[in-house]
């Protein structure tokens, strides 16, 4: 009897439409899977897509409408830390629940943490730590960082540098380059990287800033490989349109197609059958997060917000991307990060894509509760 | 020394692109006194048309020719059926019209082509790097700069040696008088507007392979082009050349010289010029 | 004492020399005319006196103080007011509002954020007085651009007078008026400028000779002659350069 | 009749500037429009040229109706216009100013068939200045250039507005001599001139305007004889 | 006669006020929220129209004031700093006033197209600052804030209650708008009109148009700042959106769609925009395209905007001012 309404707050128009669409596909598939098994606690899941335009005011206005008129209590979303911040504020006021599978800003489970906000995904700290761990494990000495000049780029770089220094004090950071968000011409930056003589380039760039960086680096003869946040993106690879420019570089994510787990194989098969394409990157991330949320609802036995919060805290979910644990102190899931080198031959696409993935376990890259700055009101 | 030369080259390529966009903008402004907000949207459309042509035909050179032609037609239509309609309401309305147009094109592009950045394939010899100054340098960037110079020269030649050019420059001075000399000024306006659009579209085509084709590309270059025409002097072609060059180089060398201010660098330049010479480097004092 | 004294004014426009060493003075309550062929630099001279342009060199003294570099609004507040050769009024406002602008300015009500000029009895009364004086009272609610040309010229004059100046500069106040209108305009100018000094540019010799107490003839940026009307009429150089045979 | 103007009424906004101008011209004639400032002389020329659209009345040029046509169409029919404010193109060189006057080929071949060389013959000073920017010329040179530019279009009818305005007497005389040359070449000229005495030799006919109407028509002798008319409408 | 006239004159305004006061009792909470948002944007749009419609200055940088107001409020009412409600509002308005003044001084010399361009550049600069100075602004993550409760002697007003916040907005925005209307009649307001008509002539009747431009710019800036401050309090969140060119575009669309020729045009525009956005975005993702087309149609066929259309159709928006000839 009844349904559980889950509002998906994503940009479904505008510049980030493509990101929002892919997240939404993941959520929708998760709902299909759940509903096919009879729903959660006997209730079907109803997905309500909401276009946020990545504008916090638009997002909160629409969410308020759902809260007040349609009695929606569960929200999720993955795009735009500012939308995340505004949403977590809003759900706290109305005692609803918001979880994010994509918003990376550490502060959302740090000093801005909220009882009503969960992040079944990684954050900038863990993501950067994982890359630092990988660089350290490979024994690389000469590292340069290039990032977008705004809070995310800076946080990601700072976390990377901090962890790398810890793991390998001998590693040399040859530079931290910051370029404007939405930069046009990367040639001068590439020259700078080349002349630094780095072995590896760390970059948390996303979107066109990543595409252009890779694209313009190749014909200038940059030999060093990139260690990237978001290379695990088929659209980015097609836009670079030059496999040579990406092969050998490193992708890192909480989910990628090449995770060698049985659950993942099952998930990919099911998804491919249902939709006709692969659940690469964002789709997978959203799927796993929603399944995790569903576990919490199942454990709570109902979908009342207070019960779900209680149930989700400390819950473990063993899914396509390994074992995820929702930490009670800051509602940040403790997850492994998967690393993969880009290879030409892959079972998924004609173009280059991620090779076999290996995990950096959650306990190596987690941030202790005391260090997050989260003081959660219970 | 070799480094300096490389950065200089980087600056040139972007300057070339910028010049192709801003020259049309400044020409239209000089003649019709209209700041065309949709100018960069034509640039974006040029890139998208070329992208689609490439998808269907696979021929880059074809796209390079056909896409600007399409924009020429589009520009002519916009001038004839939109801009001319609001002309008598004054510049404010013309400006607002182009602003609205830019907005619509922006949304339309997202609708038709989606929001993903798209890649444009180029002939393989252009995709390589060559060895100059002992470093590998992308051929395509040289190609872009070469084209910009060639087009700039052609334009200067057209403007300063042909009758059409004389008419265009005369119409910048006093278009009623040109009309009284038996020249169909509305047609000239339409031609110049369309030409500006085509030029911008051409720039879009060659920018595509370098910067990818995406819905934000209009906005990113628009601000730079505005700065170019303010710095160079509104309506001055020579000013556009110089200002494009300065801004191209500034963005290139700025990366090493003032890494902290890379965002605000061109605004600071603009502010400086406005304080020292409000009418721009080549502009005429009113 | 001279209310206006200009000394050795030069003015260049991008290399084009328009004024070459103009010196003259206007006495308190004097009506002084400047004549000369088109392009002689008359309007330019007015622009320098009123502060629209800065001279390339030379000084402008007003009421004993140097005002060469003072901005226009300051000159106006000290009692120097001008009209324009090309009608220059607030086209889309009513005649009343046009004149009220000057009246408010004179009363120091320029940027007041609380007081409403339209509700101020004395300002409105003063505005109506001026409108009556120039014969525009019936048209006070008409938009300026809807006035006939002659009336616009009258409005131009009204605005000029609205700040109660001590020296007015009138640039061709009767240009474009019919003979009859011109006669009226002459009477009006004579009447309203009784209390003040007045400098006039005119091409219409009728106007010049019936109004001016002193005349300066400008030619190619220089003062060809300056003196009383009778003398000017007889001056051979002036005849050659400007009046032609007309004068005789 | 090469030009017939019938009951022409023009307005600037609400002010009724031309109030029924009527006259006609024979080919090869020079007609002078006289009158005080602001009576509508320039407006008459502009109304013929299409720069001001008359609200009522007709202009027939070589039998063709001009009203309603755009200036460029009128120019292409063979009417040349020399404005009173000179309006040369300041950023163009003298040569370019002349070239722009060369119209698209038209059906009726103009009379003089002026070429750049011919123009330079008539105005040697312009030949000297051919590479100078128009804006740098002196007032007199600019005036000559304006006339020359219009001649390049080989007009059958020349409308000239105050060609000697603001020119030093010597320069003015030069311009008038040149207009005489043009007349000799067979070009019909409608000229506005304040200084009618200077134009006595040139003009075949003199029309005096007042308040938007033509109030007197006559040749030089008649004008000289009509003392009262001159006193009323022209003199001080 | 006179009594009757003035009674009639007050009839519609009184009805409007009565309706606005009664709204919380009538409307569902979400609808009330929309009205509240429309009220805030009305203030923003009216301030924009004082520049565009009254002074004839096309600015592409109005969002910088809105943003500064919003961010200042975000800081004052955010974590740590616990300013009282009206304190935060007033201080934010004051800060924007200063910013408006400073920018105004720099823009004194330019007008027309260069003015439009420079305001655009300034907006971009402020946006860049907001991104870069993330310690203060939270950068891309934005700022969380809490609506401070209001002390009223014995008890505290809970500003989080929809109707309470609505009444506060109604009161403050209403009074401010009333003053704006009054402003257009003051000598300064008249000066603005005169300045648009003929700045040169105005100087020759003794006005220092630099001063009047500066006052106007500062004034409209502070109004926009106040609107921004309310916006921040309303959403309890400030993001880069508030200071982006997008926000300028929003207010430009609102103002122009509503009509620049009438004082209430922008108010109408803000309401229509908010409702259309709410309504259309539920129907289609392409709603910005529809807005753009609407905008172009208005530029082409109804330069007076919606209020112009209504005016000519019904005579309702009787011309109360001669802002547009
Ligand atoms: N702003 C300017 N820039 C360049 N030249 C100018 C400017 N203003 C005037 N001139 C030139 O200066 C000369 C004198 O102009 P001015 O307007 O003073 O003449 P005037 O004596 O008032 O003539 P008129 O009787 O025709 O009004 C003219 O040749 C004119 O072209
Ligand atoms: N663009 C305009 N707008 C409004 N009124 C104008 C305009 N041009 C001219 N006028 C007015 O129309 C009337 C006739 O002007 P016109 O230029 O035809 O006179 P004119 O006889 O040529 O005088 P002038 O000897 O001064 O050249 C004058 O009163 C003039 O002020
Ligand atoms: Mg003059
Ligand atoms: Mg004339």
Compact overview of the structure:
With 378 residues, chain A is α/β, with parallel strands linked by helices. Chain A has helices spanning 17-36, 56-69, 81-94, 124-137, 151-167, 187-196, 208-217, 234-240, 243-246, 262-275, 282-300, 305-312, 362-365, 369-372, and strands at 3-10, 44-51, 74-77, 97-100, 117-118, 142-148, 172-179, 200-203, 225-228, 250-253, 316-319, 322-326, 333-334, 337-343, 353-360.
Protein architecture, described:
The complex is a heteropentamer of chains A (378), B (286), C (248), D (236) and E (325). Chain B has 12 helices and 2 strands, in the order αααααββααααααα. In chain B, helix 2 packs parallel to helix 4 and helix 6 runs antiparallel to helix 9. Chain B has helices spanning 2-32, 39-57, 60-86, 91-113, 124-127, 139-161, 163-173, 175-180, 185-211, 217-232, 237-257, 265-276, and strands at residues 129-132, 135-138. Chain B is 77% helix and 3% strand. Chain C is an alpha/beta fold and 248 residues long. The two termini of chain C are 34 Å apart. The mean pLDDT of chain C is 85. Chain D has helices at residues 41-49, 71-77, 94-100, 116-122, 124-128, 139-151, 169-184, 220-225, 227-233, and strands at 3-12, 15-25, 30-34, 56-61, 64-65, 79-82, 157-161, 188-192, 205-210, 213-218. Chain D has 236 residues and is an alpha/beta fold. Chain D is 33% helix and 25% strand. Chain D has one domain (28-50, 79-233): Rossmann fold. Chain D starts with a strand and ends with a helix. Chain D has a 6-stranded mixed beta sheet with strand order 6-7-8-3-9-10, sandwiched between helices. A 4-stranded antiparallel beta sheet of chain D has the order 2-1-4-5, with helices on one face. Chain E has one domain (2-324): ABC transporter involved in vitamin B12 uptake, BtuC (Orthogonal Bundle). Chain E has helices at residues 2-26, 29-54, 62-76, 85-107, 112-132, 134-137, 162-183, 187-197, 199-203, 209-235, 245-258, 265-283, 287-301, 305-314; strands at residues 143-144, 150-152, 155-157, 237-238. The longest helix of chain E has 27 residues, at 209-235. Chain E starts with a helix and ends in an 11-residue tail after the last helix. Chains in contact: A-B, A-E, B-D, B-E, C-D, C-E. The complex binds adenosine-5'-triphosphate (2 copies) and magnesium ion (MG) (2 copies). One adenosine-5'-triphosphate (ATP) is lined by residues 13, 16, 18, 36, 38-44, 85 of chain C.
């Amino acid at each position: 009897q009844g349904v559980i309404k889950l509002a998906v707050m994503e940009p479904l128009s505008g510049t980030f439409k493509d990101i929002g669409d892919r997240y939404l596909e993941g959520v929708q598939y998760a709902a299909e899977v759940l509903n096919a098994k009879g729903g959660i606690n006997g209730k079907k899941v109803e997905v309500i897509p909401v276009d946020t335009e990545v504008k916090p005011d638009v997002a909160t206005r629409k969410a308020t409408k759902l809260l007040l008129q349609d009695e929606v209590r569960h929200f999720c979303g993955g795009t735009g830390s500012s939308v995340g911040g505004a949403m977590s504020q809003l759900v706290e006021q109305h005692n609803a629940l918001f979880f994010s599978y994509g918003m990376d800003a550490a502060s959302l489970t740090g000093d801005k943490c909220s009882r009503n906000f969960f992040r079944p995904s990684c954050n900038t700290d863990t993501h950067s730590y994982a890359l630092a761990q990988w660089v350290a494990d490979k024994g690389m000495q000469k590292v340069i960082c290039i990032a977008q000049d705004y809070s995310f780029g800076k946080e990601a770089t700072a976390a990377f540098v901090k962890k790398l220094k810890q793991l390998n004090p001998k590693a040399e950071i040859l530079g931290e380059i910051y370029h404007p968000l939405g930069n046009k011409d990367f040639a001068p930056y590439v020259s700078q990287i080349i002349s630094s003589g780095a072995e590896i380039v760390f970059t948390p760039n996303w979107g066109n800033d990543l595409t252009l960086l890779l694209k313009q680096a190749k014909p200038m003869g940059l030999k060093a490989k990139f260690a990237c946040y978001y290379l695990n993106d088929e659209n980015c690879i097609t836009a670079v349109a030059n496999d040579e420019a990406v092969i050998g570089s490193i992708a890192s994510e909480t989910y990628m197609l090449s995770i060698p787990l049985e659950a993942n194989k099952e998930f990919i098969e099911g998804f491919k059958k249902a939709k006709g394409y692969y659940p690469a990157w964002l789709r997978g991330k959203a799927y796993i997060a929603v399944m995790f949320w569903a576990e919490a609802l199942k454990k709570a036995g109902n979908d009342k917000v207070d019960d779900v919060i209680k149930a989700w805290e400390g819950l473990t979910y063993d899914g396509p991307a390994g074992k995820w644990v929702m930490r009670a102190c800051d509602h940040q899931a403790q997850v492994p990060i998967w690393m993969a080198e880009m290879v030409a031959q892959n079972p998924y696409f004609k173009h280059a894509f991620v090779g076999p993935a290996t995990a950096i376990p959650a306990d190596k890259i987690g941030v202790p509760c005391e260090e997050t700055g989260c003081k959660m009101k219970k | 020394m070799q480094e300096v030369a490389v950065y200089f080259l980087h600056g040139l390529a972007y300057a070339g692109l910028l010049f192709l966009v801003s020259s049309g903008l400044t020409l239209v402004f000089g003649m019709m006194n209209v700041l065309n907000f949709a100018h960069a949207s034509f640039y974006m459309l040029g890139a998208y048309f070329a992208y689609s042509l490439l998808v269907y035909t696979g021929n880059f050179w074809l796209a390079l020719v056909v896409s600007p032609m399409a924009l020429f037609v589009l520009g002519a239509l916009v001038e004839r059926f939109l801009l001319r309609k609001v002309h008598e309401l004054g510049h404010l309305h013309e400006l607002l019209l182009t602003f609205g147009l830019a907005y619509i094109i922006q949304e339309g592009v997202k609708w038709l082509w989606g929001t993903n950045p798209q890649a444009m394939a180029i002939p393989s010899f252009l995709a390589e790097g060559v060895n100059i100054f002992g470093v590998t340098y992308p051929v395509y960037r040289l190609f872009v700069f070469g084209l910009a110079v060639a087009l700039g020269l052609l334009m200067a030649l057209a403007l300063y040696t042909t009758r059409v050019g004389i008419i265009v420059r005369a119409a910048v001075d006093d278009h009623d008088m040109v009309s009284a000399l038996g020249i169909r000024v509305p047609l000239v306006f339409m031609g110049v507007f369309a030409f500006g659009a085509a030029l911008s579209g051409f720039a879009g085509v060659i920018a595509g392979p370098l910067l990818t084709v995406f819905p934000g590309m209009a906005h990113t270059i628009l601000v730079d082009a505005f700065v170019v025409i303010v710095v160079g002097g509104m309506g001055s072609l020579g000013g556009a050349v110089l200002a494009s060059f300065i801004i191209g180089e500034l963005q290139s060398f700025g990366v090493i010289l003032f890494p902290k201010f890379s965002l605000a660098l061109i605004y600071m330049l603009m502010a400086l010029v406005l304080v020292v010479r409000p009418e721009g480097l080549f502009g005429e004092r009113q | 004492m001279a209310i206006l004294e200009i000394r050795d004014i030069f003015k260049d426009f991008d290399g084009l020399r328009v004024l070459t060493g103009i010196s003259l003075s206007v006495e308190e309550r004097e009506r002084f005319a400047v004549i000369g062929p088109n392009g002689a630099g008359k309007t330019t001279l007015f622009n320098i006196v009123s502060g629209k342009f800065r001279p390339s060199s030379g000084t402008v003294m007003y009421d004993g103080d140097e005002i060469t570099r003072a901005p226009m609004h300051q000159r106006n507040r000290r009692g120097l007011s001008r009209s324009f050769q090309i009608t220059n009024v607030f086209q889309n406002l009513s005649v009343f509002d046009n004149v009220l602008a000057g009246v408010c300015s004179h009363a120091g009500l320029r940027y007041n954020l609380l007081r409403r000029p339209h509700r101020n009895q004395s300002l409105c009364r003063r505005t109506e007085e001026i409108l009556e004086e120039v014969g525009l009272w019936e048209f006070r609610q008409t938009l300026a651009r809807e006035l006939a040309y002659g009336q616009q010229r009258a409005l131009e004059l009204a605005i000029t007078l609205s700040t109660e100046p001590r020296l007015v500069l009138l640039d061709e106040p009767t240009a474009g008026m019919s003979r009859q209108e011109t006669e009226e305009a002459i009477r009006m100018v004579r009447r309203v400028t009784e209390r003040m000094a007045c400098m006039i540019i005119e091409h219409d010799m009728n106007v010049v000779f019936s109004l001016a107490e002193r005349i300066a003839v400008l030619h190619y940026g220089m003062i060809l002659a300056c003196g009383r009307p009778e003398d000017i009429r007889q001056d051979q150089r002036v005849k050659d350069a400007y009046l032609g045979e007309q004068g005789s | 009749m090469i030009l017939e103007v019938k009951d022409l009424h023009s307005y600037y906004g609400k002010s009724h500037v031309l109030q029924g101008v009527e006259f006609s011209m024979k080919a090869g004639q020079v007609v002078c429009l006289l009158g005080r400032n602001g009576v509508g002389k320039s407006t008459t020329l502009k109304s013929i040229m299409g720069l001001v659209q008359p609200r009522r009345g007709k202009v027939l040029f070589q039998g063709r109706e001009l009203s309603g046509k755009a200036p460029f169409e009128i120019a292409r029919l063979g009417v040349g216009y020399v404005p009173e404010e000179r309006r040369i193109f300041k950023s163009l060189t003298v040569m370019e100013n002349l070239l722009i006057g060369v119209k698209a080929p038209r059906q009726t071949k103009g009379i003089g068939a002026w070429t750049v060389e011919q123009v330079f013959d008539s105005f040697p000073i312009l030949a000297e200045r051919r590479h100078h920017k128009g804006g740098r010329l002196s007032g007199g040179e600019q005036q000559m250039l304006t006339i020359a530019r219009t001649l390049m279009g080989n007009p059958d009818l020349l409308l000239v507005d105050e060609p000697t305005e603001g020119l030093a007497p010597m320069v003015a005389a030069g311009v008038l001599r040149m207009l005489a040359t043009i007349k000799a070449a067979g070009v019909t000229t409608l000229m506005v001139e304040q200084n009618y005495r200077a134009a006595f030799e040139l003009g075949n006919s003199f029309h005096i305007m007042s308040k938007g109407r033509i109030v007197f028509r006559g040749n030089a002798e008649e004008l000289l004889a009509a003392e009262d008319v001159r006193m009323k409408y022209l003199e001080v | 006669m006179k009594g009757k006239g003035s009674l009639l004159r007050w009839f519609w305004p009184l009805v409007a006020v009565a309706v606005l006061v009664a709204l919380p009792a009538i409307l569902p909470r979400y609808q009330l929220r929309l009205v509240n948002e429309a009220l805030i944007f009305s203030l923003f749009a009216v301030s924009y129209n004082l520049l565009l419609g009254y002074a004839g200055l096309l600015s592409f940088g109005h969002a910088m004031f809105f943003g500064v107001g919003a961010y200042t409020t975000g800081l004052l009412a955010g974590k740590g700093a616990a300013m009282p409600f009206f304190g935060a509002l007033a201080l934010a308005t004051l800060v924007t006033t200063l910013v408006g003044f400073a920018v105004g001084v720099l823009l004194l010399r330019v007008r027309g197209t260069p003015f439009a361009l420079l305001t655009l550049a300034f907006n971009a600069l402020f946006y860049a600052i907001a991104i870069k100075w993330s310690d203060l602004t939270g950068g891309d993550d934005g700022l969380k804030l809490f609506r401070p409760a209001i002390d009223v002697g014995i008890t505290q007003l809970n500003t989080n209650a929809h109707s309470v916040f609505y009444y506060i907005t109604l009161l403050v925005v209403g009074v401010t708008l009333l003053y704006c209307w009054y402003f257009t009649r003051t000598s300064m307001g008249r000066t603005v009109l005169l300045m648009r008509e003929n700045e040169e002539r105005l100087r020759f009747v003794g006005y220092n148009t630099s001063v009047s431009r500066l006052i106007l710019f500062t004034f409209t800036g502070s109004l926009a700042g106040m609107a921004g401050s309310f916006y921040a309090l309303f959403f309890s969140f400030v993001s880069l959106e508030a200071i982006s060119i997008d926000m300028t575009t929003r207010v430009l669309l609102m103002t122009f769609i509503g009509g620049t020729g009438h004082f209430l045009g922008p108010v109408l525009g803000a309401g229509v925009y908010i409702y259309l956005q709410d309504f259309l975005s539920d129907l289609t993702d392409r709603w910005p395209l529809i807005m753009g087309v609407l905008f172009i149609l208005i530029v082409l066929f109804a330069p007076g905007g919606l209020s112009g259309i209504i005016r000519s159709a019904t005579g309702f928006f009787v011309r109360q001012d001669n802002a547009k000839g």
